[in-house]
Design goal:
about 150 residues, alpha+beta, 7 strands
Length: about 150
C-alpha cells in the first residue's frame, strides 16, 4: 500500500464522484458529489482530497476550518468527510489513510487540535477513529458524535 493525497480537479472529479460506500453505510456519509459542491459554493476553508494507492483512487477526505459560531464555540479544524470506496474496504485502507492524513495535516498546520464526527449508529467508524487516537468529547454537533485529537 502506497497512499498519497491529490487535490480534486477537472482530471479526477468524475472518478471521485463515482466512489461509493456499501448500501448500509449510505446514511453515514454524504456522497462525494455533495462534498465537492459544498467546497465550491459554501465558501470557507474546505479542502477536498482524493486518496490514492499508487494511481488508483480508493477514497476521499475533506478537511475544513470553521471559526467559532453559534453551532460550535471554538475555532476548529475538522475532518468533515472521510470515505473508502466499497471495493477497498476491510483491507486496511481506512486506518492507513487516516494515519497518513494526520501526518500530512501535522506537517501543514503543526501540533493543533483536529476533530471528526460520526453518526451515533456508525460504530465501525467510531472504533476506527478511537484506534487512530481520537477521543470522544461528549459533544454532539449537527446530531453527530464529536471526537478530538491533539496533534
Amino acid at each position: 500500500m502506497q497512499l498519497e493525497f491529490k487535490g480534486i480537479d477537472k482530471n479526477n472529479y468524475e472518478q471521485c464522484v463515482e466512489l461509493t460506500v456499501n448500501k448500509e453505510q449510505e446514511d453515514f456519509v454524504a456522497p462525494n458529489w455533495y462534498s465537492l459542491l459544498e467546497e465550491k459554493y459554501e465558501g470557507g476553508e474546505k479542502h477536498p482530497l482524493a486518496i490514492y494507492d499508487h494511481e488508483k483512487m480508493v477514497g476521499f477526505i475533506m478537511y475544513c476550518y470553521y471559526p467559532a459560531d453559534d453551532d460550535y464555540p471554538l475555532d476548529s479544524w475538522w475532518i468533515e468527510r472521510f470515505m473508502i470506496d466499497k471495493e477497498f474496504q476491510n483491507k486496511g485502507y481506512g486506518k492507513a489513510a487516516l494515519r497518513k492524513f494526520i501526518d500530512y495535516f501535522r506537517s501543514e498546520y503543526g501540533n493543533i487540535d483536529l476533530r471528526i464526527t460520526t453518526v451515533p449508529e456508525n460504530e465501525v467508524a467510531s472504533k476506527l477513529y478511537e484506534k487512530i487516537g481520537f477521543s470522544k468529547t461528549g459533544e454532539i454537533a449537527a446530531g453527530e458524535v464529536v471526537l478530538h485529537m491533539k496533534l
